[in-house]
UniProtKB/TrEMBL annotation:
<feature type="domain" description="TehB/YeaR-like">
    <location>
        <begin position="16"/>
        <end position="90"/>
    </location>
</feature>
<protein>
    <submittedName>
        <fullName>DUF1971 domain-containing protein</fullName>
    </submittedName>
</protein>
<dbReference type="InterPro" id="IPR014710">
    <property type="entry name" value="RmlC-like_jellyroll"/>
</dbReference>
<dbReference type="Pfam" id="PF09313">
    <property type="entry name" value="TehB-like"/>
</dbReference>
<dbReference type="InterPro" id="IPR015392">
    <property type="entry name" value="TehB/YeaR-like_dom"/>
</dbReference>
Length: 103
């Protein structure tokens, strides 16, 4: 599995979304190393400008996303983000769909 996949796997559902972040309100926690919880995927949507997504060691990868692009964030992979060019982005969080109870 690529550490920065191009799309979310099937079977996930969105359950939470951050507000829009700009250089003025981007939390320090997102600019320093952090990760999502087990089973939680992220999808970073760039609305304006350019964002760089970095993986922390032992991984050595990064991705650049421009307005209209998205970056998939794997569960439990330590990363941080930074604006390459001022703009705006938000993150949508996904997890596996829970099966409906059978009647």
């Amino acid at each position: 599995m690529h550490l920065i996949p191009h799309q979310l796997p099937d079977g996930l559902q969105a359950y939470k979304c951050t507000p829009d972040f700009t250089p003025e309100n981007l939390p320090a926690a997102l600019q320093s190393q952090h990760s999502t919880k087990a089973g939680v995927w992220g999808l970073l949507h760039v609305l304006e400008g350019q964002v760089t997504y970095h993986l922390a060691p032992p991984h050595h990868a990064s991705a650049i996303a421009n307005a209209g692009d998205s970056i998939v964030i794997l569960p439990e992979i330590v990363h941080w983000v930074a604006f390459s060019h001022p703009g705006r982005f938000y993150v949508e969080f996904y997890r596996e769909m829970t099966p409906a109870p059978s009647s």
